[in-house]
Structure prediction request, 648 residues.
Amino acid sequence: MIKERLRNFTTKNPLVFIAWKLLFTRKFILEGSTPLSLLGLVLGVACLLVSMAVMSGFEATLKKTMTDVTGHIQVIDKNKSKPFWKDFENELKTIEPKLESTTRFVYIESVLASQGQIVGILLQGIDSDRYKNIINLNQRLVDGVNDISSYTENGVKFPQAMIGKGIARRLNIKVGDKINVVVPISDSVDPSTFKRQAAEFRVSGVLDLGKYEWNERLIITDITSAQKLAAIGDRYTGLIMKLSDDRDVRGAAFRMALKLGPQYLIRDWRDVNENLFDAVEIERVVIFFVILIIVIVAAFNISSTLYVGVVQRNSDIAILKTLGVSKKQVLKIFTLQGLLLGFMGVALGLVLGFFLCQGFMILQNQFELIPGSVYKIDNIVIKIRLVDVFAITLATLIISFFATLAPALRSSRLSVVEGLRYG
Amino acid sequence: MGNVLLSARNIFKSYPQGSGTLDILKGVSLDIQEGEAIGIVGSSGSGKSTLLQILGTLDYPQSGELVYLEKNLFQLDDEQLSLFRNQTIGFVFQFHHLLSELSALENVLLPCRIANQDIGIATRQAEELLAFLGLGDRLHHYPNQLSGGELQRVAIARALVRQPRILFADEPTGNLDSMNSYKIQELFFKIREQLKIAIVVVTHDLHFAQKFPRILHLKDGRWAE
Prediction:
């Protein structure tokens, strides 16, 4: 079917027919430098596809890591005059139907004291009965359990907290240990003095939060315990949200910002980690252009191959001109040849790149290719994006086109008389 | 004889040679009438092939005019000249110059493809033409499967498939043995008789030239008496 269509296409377009017939000769394809030039292009395209797929996979892994901890969107009331949170959640659901669930959160700057050492930490309070629907800490757990509800020991209730693995390592805290969190509260009568408010927490789990800063500073506990410790009543910083579809988080955040007005600060997962994702994006573009150099070199190998082809075909070009092919048409024929080779290179390169990606996934599943203890990520997701395939195809064809121009121009300027005499 | 089809007037052509120039054609004029058969003879270097290339718009002279039905051909651009060659002129050279990747039939169809002619109709015409030239059973043979005489006949078919009004041939028998040479010579006159087209053949084979009703002798870039 495809062969038949291809034949129809080539026979109905005279220039394509001639380009095709002159290019796909046994001598030209199998002998000389053509296979090697083509192989260079194929490898270049495959490298591009694999590197872009790895970058996309890395970004997706990073995104998952971030949303596991921060949720999809955070809404913060700048005036700290939030309505009853359930009403607020319902209001948000009317704005964004894809909103699945929310949890309140509160951030409290505090100090952790343990075994004679103190460190500054950020205490995050979240709804202990709802947070598991919104943020996914199970996969972040290094030790202990994913539980921040109160713990009863000898009839005494202890609030529980999960701590970043950096804090655990620095202060040598283990699951089951008790830690003291101290919050300085300014005196309402004399603002220059502080009251000390402290609470004891039992460590229920140690988390690898995927980000150095979080691992070194974040402690997660039940919002009620945090509110009680900071003596803020039932006030909270904002809501963390999870959407049913994470593909349009930015759009949803935008819609919320429009509806809620400037009183609210809306941050999606990307805003929360803006610098990191900007760096990843820049890295992706840099890698694309660096590897594109391979394609450029390969395309110019094709150019030299075509150049030799033009020299070898002086006589054929001359005879085509005697039969009525104009200079412009000769230019088109040889440009088409370059594009056909470029297209072949892209097609074969994409297929090779796809198989390399699949091969890597299989090897990764069979063997521990990336030690998680070293790289924090023990599994690279390979994600082939359509937009990458399109960009690689377009870039390669454009480069092939420019690489073809020199031999094509030479062929079009060839003198018929000389072609017939010396060809 | 019919009307003047192509008229070359006062053609001068020279090539650079060292610090000076080598004059090849020194004011040659020629009228080619419809259906006329002209044999051009001359020694090597006399300018026969150069004249033929200029008459066929494959090369430009330093000065002079080439007029086809009152149209000065050297004032046309490359696209127009290419179209003119495709529609009006057929070329046969000493070497067949067939594309080795194409079969006999595909080679003959090339000018039709270039003209974007309906390929079904063109194929029927090409098959008839090849049969007329005695190659009905060689349609799908590739150049490396054909003999020297057959190759030249395919080249002639390719030159004729667009039904040109003038056929230029530059030493068409120069590469053939005497038997094939004779057959090709006969073919030229058969073509002229049946297709009623003008034929201009450059040859140094006097025996072949003598068969032409009009023989022109080029000597040192000028017509000799």
User: Anything to note?
Assistant: Chain A has two domains: 13-65+276-422, 72-268. Residues 13-65+276-422 of chain A form one domain. The CA atoms of residues 136 and 373 of chain A lie 21 Å apart.
